[in-house]
Structures are given as C-alpha cells and as structure tokens.
Write a structure and sequence with these properties.
6-stranded mixed beta sheet, alpha/beta, 22 strands, 6-stranded parallel beta sheet, 39% helix
Length: 698
C-alpha cells in the first residue's frame, strides 16, 4: 500500500481540520436553531426539538472522534482506496474522505480473512496516540491478501518485524483452522487453548472485531466485556480493535470486576487457594443466612411514647410464610418487614378500639411507629440489611463469624489462614467474594439518615410498607460502557476473557453472572496457570456452559524460536511443571545465560537491546521495588508507562500476553519459586520473539 507513517500523518491532519470545521458548523447550527423564534405552534416546537436532538447527536459523535478520527485503510483489487474511521466524512465536493466503520463498504476491515478476502488487496491499521498538538500517527500495520497462502509461514515472517509496544495486527497469520474460530457463532462459548505464541489472543481479538461488526446492533445494545490479566495488557491491545473506541465495550482486569473497588494487592498462595475455592460461595451464603433472626416466640416492643406493640408467635410466622429464603436476601427482607409493619399496625388498632381494616388509620400508625428507635431496632434485627463489603469484611476479620459460616466446610487451619487484620486492604481474590455476596444479597439502597440519629437503625422507613423496588437507571447522558461498568448486574452481549487460566472458581462465578447468555470467547493456556485455585481443565471452569462450549486447540507457535522454546521448557520442567504441546517453526539465536551484578543491569540492558524494536526486563515480584531505584533512566518504564518505554520492566503477571524482540529474565530461580509448577518463569521465558537472556543476579 502506498504511503508511510508520514503520509498517514498528513491525511490525519487534513481530516482533523475537516472534522474541526464540521464541529464548528454543527455548533453554529445548534446555536442558531436554539435562538430562532418559534411560531408558537406545538408542531413547530416538536420539529425544532427533533432537529436539535439530531444535531446534538452529530456533534457528540464528531467530538468523540477527535482523539482518533481515522484508524484504518482499505485497498481493493479493483483499485478503490478508502480510509476508515469512527464517522463518515465528505469534502466540499461531496467526495468520500472517510468511511464510517459501520458502513457496508467498511465491512472488509472487520470481516476479511485470507480465506475470504472480500476483494481486499491490502488492509492497514493506523495506530494513533493523543498529544497536545493533536493526534499523532505512531505506526502502521499492513496485511496483504493477494498471493498469500493461508497455510504458509506468514506468521513466522511477521515475528521478524520489530515489536512496536502495541499488539501487531494479524499480519496474514490467520490460517484456515483459525478462520473457523473467528467466524464461530455468537451464541456459544468458544474456547481457544494454546501455548505461548500460538496466536490465541490475536485470533480472539480478530473474532471480537468480526462479532462487533457482524452483530453490532445486538452488541451495541448490551455491550461487550473484555477481561484481561493486567492494565498493561489492556493498554497493549487498545489499538487492535478500533471500534473499542466506541461506547459499547468495557475493558477490565479481574481486580476491577466489582464496581467501586479497584485493587492489585495479591494474597499469598495459601490464602488465594482458599478464597478461590468454590466452597467460599457456601460460606458466604451461610454468613448471609445467619443475618435472618426471626424470633420463634412473640415480640413486644414499647415505644418511647409508651405505646405497646404486640406480635404473637403466630403473627410473626404468618409474616414470614411464603417468603423463600432461597431468594436473594434483601428481596425477602422487604416483603417480610412490610407484613410485620402492617400486622403491628393492625394489632395496635385492634387493641386501642379502632378498625384494623381502616387502611388510612393503619398507614398513619405505621408512619408513627416506624420513627421510634425501639421499633426500628427490634424490627431491623429480625432481618438486618447489610452490604457485600460488610459481609465479606466480617467473615475475614471476625473469628466467630467465620467459624459459624464455615462449619463443616473449611478446616480450622484454613479458617486461621483466612483471618486478617480489619485494616488490611482488599485483594484481587476478595473481589469475587464481594461479587458473590452482592449477588446473594440483592439490591438494597439505604435511605439517607438524619445526622442526629444512629445510622445502624435508620434503615427501616414508613415507605417500607409500600416501597417499590427501583429499576435500573436509563440515563442516556452517559455511554453504555459507563452505565455497564457501574452496574454489577449488567449482562453483556458477549464476554471475552484472555489468560483465562488465571481465574479461580470464584472468579468464574463472577464472570458467569455477566455472561448468562453463554456468549463468550475464552482464551488461555492451562499450562501457564499460576493461580493456586485455577482450573485444571476447561470443562471444570466452564461446566455451566455444557454443550454450548466448543474447544479449539492451537499448537503451532509463531512467536518463540526453537531455542527459546527449549530453554523455557527446561525451566518449566525443573520447576515441576508440565510443558504444553508446542511446535515452534522458527530458528533463532541461542539463549544466553550469564551472571550480572544488579548495579550493572541498566547499562547491560541498554547495550543488548535491539536498535529497532523493544525489549523487556522481567523480574520476580520481590525485586521490582529494588529495580525502580536502579533503573531510573527514561529508557525504562514501569507499570502503566512500561509499554511507552524502549525497555519495559515487568513482573511475570504483567507480561502475560505481551511480546518483545528481546527479553532479559532476571533471577529465573526466583521466578520458578514464585508460583506452583513454575508458571511464572515459563511465562517470562516465552515473551521474546528473537533473543532471550537468563540473568543470574550476583
């Protein structure tokens, strides 16, 4: 395809100017339409409101496109040549400047494969980053379709190009069997199992692009959730799927699944094993059930004004009758307390000589007695509302609460391991527990309580007698992704999980609730699992999918050379792991092993790094803080800045799914001991496409 980064920058600049002109034009039209005097007729006002809605929608779309107006280019065998972007644009002569990604002519950008090129000669993805001066084209990835043999070693050839810091395009590596994965039906759980470098992630993302285009109406309505192993990984893939810039995709790590809590804190292996075990769901259910304390005898409450409220054992039994405890906790609380309040009012009316069937009188009584602190206390204690955070926090910090809930489920030894200090922060393995508790509790919105009153007993209100459960907000001023990310009960149209072997049984339960339509793409390598509660088989992890699960296995690795594969396999075997079935098809440099003082690591890493490409230092978790103080040059990047530096400094977990031209594995023995079966050292040793060095710290 003619044109380079410089040429695409010229195009982007001109398109950006055209976009700015369009925004100014729309703003002017909105201002003039708003100020225009009306005729006074209802029809005129309706038409003006409709026009303003349309203009504002166009303005919102144009402003949203500013950061990345263009992301692709299509060159067809018939000579047509079009750029693709977030919105469609024409010049002053009416000629097409930019194809809207949703337009039929843009379909090949998402749907074309080598098996079905759809008339394409070449497809280009244009990577852009924002700057104060405007969008900057950082690199382009071209995919050729003419004369490409789908069973050739195009994937191997693509690995010879320098890494760019973002995931490269498929680059003509989609073979016939992989094409079947991409185009598999939406309404199934597609599982892609494969070792390092087999292309499972890039195939899954190509499938995501295909689904987003082919089923865009459904997915735009319900959204797509992508779960990746780390923020670094999500940053890595952010330019692979241009339509992710739309408002219908949510990208999260497992540590971000529960709204309102974000954490990267890890438990030790023994604690993570227990928290990830599915038995924790039974413990949480028991802890919540214990909060229902309906008395088996009668109840008498004396209000501050001297009024006596009597409820017999039969009264309370009748109030609880028919309220199944199998339903969510707060769903049962509302009807129970409503009945208790109504029965209490009827009893008071009867005892004071009033008609218990007088609804107006009883409602006035309810409004009066519910304000009494003694009534609120006694009634609330029968079915005390709570939050997921309180349930899980009490389980993990209160020995008696845990012992009662875990009786017959966890040993006393495991219970002691779970207990922690009340001031300890949430961990990533706490989030599935919070999600489990939230699901078991159901929705409860605590009312605002008066400042002078104790918060613990302000939950009960007169409105509890006739409260209508609030419905999901449909605020259209926010995007679908913004609404979905804050709504724990949101069910997505499709869910993509990468590095899925790292999810515990409890984490899978949280994912399942968000994918109840059983429309998923799951990719991973069970041999690379480092979570102690990770699945041993996909059937175990996805048993709920039943016949909807379809497993595909990739064994040919394009990324790693035979030399790197041999070294990584040796490290894995030495650590007690089982190597996956892997067929490397490239030869490369021998793996280097050398001793080095950490004080010399910075100079050495810069001296051996590729001149045209990127490298990484992958180290044990325990050494990262030390490396921050040693690798202070701007060439080195940590955490969210890692991919924008020429040398990324990462933990093994952060490096999952990433690839580099050259990798220095620091302290392979330390990495081998970090997780069971050597998963971390294997991950670290399989990130390089060309050169791997094992550095033994002196």
């Amino acid at each position: 395809m003619p044109g380079s980064v410089k040429d695409e920058q010229i195009f982007v600049d001109s398109t950006q100017q055209l976009l700015d002109d369009q925004i100014a034009h729309l703003q002017s039209r909105i201002a003039s339409t708003t100020k225009a005097p009306g005729t006074g007729t209802g029809q005129d006002e309706l038409e003006r409101e409709a026009l303003l809605d349309n203009l504002n929608q166009q303005l919102h779309a144009a402003q949203a496109a500013r950061k990345r107006v263009c992301f692709g280019r299509l060159r067809f065998t018939n000579g047509d040549d079009h750029h693709v972007g977030r919105i469609g644009m024409r010049d002053s002569n009416g000629e097409i400047v930019l194809l809207d990604w949703r337009a039929p002519q843009a379909a090949p950008f998402y749907q074309a494969t080598i098996k079905e090129p759809m008339g394409l000669k070449q497809r280009r993805r244009i990577a852009i980053k924002s700057s104060e001066q405007g969008p900057v084209v950082t690199h382009v990835d071209d995919e050729n379709f003419e004369g490409t043999d789908p069973v050739s070693n195009a994937g191997a050839a693509s690995m010879e190009s320098p890494r760019s810091g973002r995931m490269a395009d498929i680059l003509a590596t989609i073979a016939t069997d992989q094409d079947a994965i991409i185009r598999s039906p939406l309404d199934q759980v597609t599982v892609v199992q494969g070792g390092p470098g087999t292309g499972k992630t890039v195939v899954a993302l190509h499938r995501a692009a295909w689904l987003l285009y082919t089923h865009r109406e459904r997915l735009a309505r319900d959204g797509v959730l992508i779960v990746g192993p780390s923020n670094v990984f999500l940053h890595y893939i952010d330019q692979v799927l241009p339509s992710l810039g739309e408002t219908d995709v949510v990208l999260l790590t497992p540590g971000q699944l529960y709204p309102g809590v974000r954490t990267t804190v890890q438990d030790n292996q023994d604690v993570a094993r227990i928290k990830g075990d599915e038995r924790m769901s039974r413990i949480i259910s028991a802890a919540i059930a214990a909060r229902v304390r309906i008395p088996h005898e009668g109840l008498t409450v004396t209000t501050t004004t001297g009024m006596r409220i009597n409820l017999s054992n039969h009264d309370i039994e009748q109030c609880a009758k028919g309220i199944s405890r199998s339903r969510r906790f707060h769903d049962g609380r509302e009807p129970f307390l409503r009945r208790v309040l109504q029965q209490a009012a009827r009893n008071v009316a009867l005892e004071t000589g009033h008609d218990p069937d007088d609804d107006d009188y009883c409602q006035d009584l309810i409004a009066s007695i519910v304000e009494d602190p003694a009534v609120r206390r006694e009634f609330n204690l029968m079915w005390l509302p709570t939050t997921p955070e309180k349930v899980v926090h009490q389980l993990l910090t209160d020995e008696l609460t845990l012992a009662q809930a875990a009786q017959g489920i966890l040993s006393s030894h495991d219970q002691r391991l779970l207990l922690r200090e009340p001031s300890d922060p949430w961990t990533t393995d706490d989030l599935p527990l919070l999600d489990e508790a939230a699901d078991a509790l159901g929705t409860w919105i605590p009312p605002e309580h008066r400042a002078e009153e104790a918060a613990d007993y302000r939950e009960l209100q007169a409105s509890d007698a006739y409260q209508i459960k609030p419905q999901r907000s449909m605020d259209r001023s926010t995007s679908l992704a913004e609404r979905a990310i804050d709504d724990r009960e949101w069910v997505y149209g499709h869910v993509i999980v990468d590095e899925a072997q790292e999810l515990s049984a409890m984490a899978w339960r949280a994912i399942r609730r968000r994918a109840s339509r059983k429309s998923m793409t799951v990719v991973g390598d069970l041999q690379q699992s480092s979570h102690p509660a990770g699945p041993r088989s996909w059937e175990q992890a996805l048993s709920w999918a039943s016949t909807r699960m379809h497993l595909h296995t990739l064994t040919v690795t394009y990324r790693i050379t035979r030399q790197i594969a041999a070294a990584a396999t040796r490290l894995l075997l030495d650590a007690g792991g089982d190597p996956p079935v892997l067929t490397p098809i490239r030869d490369g440099a021998d793996v280097v092993e050398r001793s080095l003082p950490l004080t010399g690591l910075a100079d050495y890493a810069l001296s051996v790094g590729p001149s045209d490409g990127r490298s990484a230092v992958i180290a044990p978790d325990s050494r990262v803080d030390q490396l921050r103080s040693l690798l202070t040059q701007p060439n080195f990047g940590f955490d969210d800045d890692a991919l924008d530096a020429s040398v990324s400094v990462l933990t093994a977990q952060q490096s999952k799914g990433l690839e580099f031209d050259s990798v220095l594995v620091l302290d392979p023995v330390g990495l081998s001991l970090q997780h069971e079966r050597g998963a971390d050292v294997y991950v670290a040793a399989t990130r390089a496409t060309k050169e791997l060095q094992l550095i033994i710290p002196e």
